[in-house]
């Protein structure tokens, strides 16, 4: 009985930690959407989440770390989408379909989907912070790497897998940069705009390098 009570207490503590972490991320999304990533501080995030800055530091070492946690949330969803796509799709087409799937689910408010404002907030953060943009470009998300590796029949260290993820990152960043240049306020950009621009940039890429879609 004592063992069962110990397991219950551990479960409660873990759930509390998960709730606190989620609350901190929610607070960061709210503040970044309202005033931008650069103007948002750790102290402000902690205050909105009703915890101390010290508590914040137990979950995230820096403000950049919480931003990358938001990126992680999206990439986790993309990885799930990837696993459900037909095996015959080439890796780049699969990445396109998976990202568009996440965007459409957000737009529709599907159960379990990431909210539209969260997706757009993360994209805005990546645009506003060169440091985070570089981190995202060089970041190799384990879940996506595993899903792509299974699709391509390779291991995570394979050069072809790295090339696919690098090319896809360039497609997304090009789409984001174009939208930012055309809109004075990122808040004016919609999820529909983002989806359409990613599709357009990818179409241009495949027209210039049609053989890239045959990566195996």
UniProtKB/TrEMBL annotation:
Q: Which Pfam families match?
A: TetR_N
Q: What highest taxon heads this organism's lineage?
A: Bacteria
Q: What region holds the HTH tetR-type domain? A: 18-78
GO molecular function term, any single one: DNA-binding transcription factor activity
**PROSITE patterns xrefs:** HTH_TETR_1 (PS01081), HTH_TETR_2 (PS50977)
Which stretches are labeled DNA-binding?
41-60
Q: Which InterPro entries match?
A: DNA-bd_HTH_TetR-type_CS (IPR023772), Homeodomain-like_sf (IPR009057), HTH-type_TetR-like_transc_reg (IPR050109), HTH_TetR (IPR001647)
Please verify whether the record's keywords include Aminoacyl-tRNA synthetase. Answer: no
Do you know which PANTHER family this protein is assigned to?
HTH-TYPE TRANSCRIPTIONAL REGULATOR RUTR (PTHR30055), MYCOFACTOCIN BIOSYNTHESIS TRANSCRIPTIONAL REGULATOR MFTR-RELATED (PTHR30055:SF238)
> What name does the UniProt record give this protein?
Bacterial regulatory s, tetR family protein
Q: Which organism is it from?
A: Mycolicibacterium hassiacum (strain DSM 44199 / CIP 105218 / JCM 12690 / 3849)
